[in-house]
Amino acid sequence: MQKIDERFTKIYIFDLNPGNDDITKEFIMGKLSRIMKNISLYQYFVIVSHSSLKVLKKIVNDAKISLGYIVSDSGARIYNISTKKVIFEKHIERNDVLGISHCLTMSDLLQLISISNNEFIYSFDPMNEYIFSKMHYINSNNVSTYGKFKELLEKNSVFSFLCFQRNSLDFSQKFANFNNVSSDWNVNVSGLGDSSFVVYHKDASKYKAILKIMESKKISNFQNVYYYGINSVDVDCYNSFKNHLISVSAYYETKNFGNTIYTVSYDAILNELSISLKNSVKSSNRKKNVFMNLNALINNSDEKTFNLKDLYQSEEK
After folding, report:
1. What is the pTM of this model?
2. Is 52:119 a contact under the CB 8 Å cutoff?
3. How far is CA 34 from CA 27, 37, 108, 248, in A?
């Protein structure tokens, strides 16, 4: 019987939040970079994030990855790593951009805008800018006056606003207020943690972007899609791609779910993937896909279960 070539028949997705902290930067540039590079030699590989394309391209370039895809700005852009070309993009409508920015300015929220080949920060609060630049994967360009910032907004296509506040004292109210008025614009608003959220076009999403990549690679079976929420989680991806693992580092994003979710430690995911990659290299049949089944990974790792209802109650106490 003819053997089936299982190379490049599956998609491995890593959902990242590169702007968490210095530890995250170390993780991304350490073991995860090597794993991503090796997977790209055997299977289709995708980085997805709410972050800008500029940030994610730097991660890919530093990791020396030459094959695969980047989904940036929560799905508003898809970038082919090998051809170095944007194959899909959906910018926020120009008549919405200034209204969104003005609303954020009135709430004194930091705005990081993602445009075609760059990103810019504006905030009334210099400390906001300083803390965000320390958190962010690469330093962004600060704009000192709102007039100059407005000029940049008018001249460029904006793919997302990343909004940040250095403390969470009144952030939930500001987020709620912005959510109330966002229905006036053709955008989605997604919370990222206890003091940040992202705004992007209503027709864009990480899930839709991954479906576009699946279609282009003629992969229709969702069982061939492996979704790793390394330190960020998308609700639609979690619910649709049942071959998934969520790291405990994605704690804040799990609040988007109304039920119990299962998480494993970050190192457990990377260690098991490393072992699987070594086995595939040693295999005499290079065509065989020997990446570990996700159920086996869950069963053999130090799994933790978060019951979110209980978690909220313990936080309130």
Report:
1. 0.84
2. yes
3. 10, 5, 40, 21
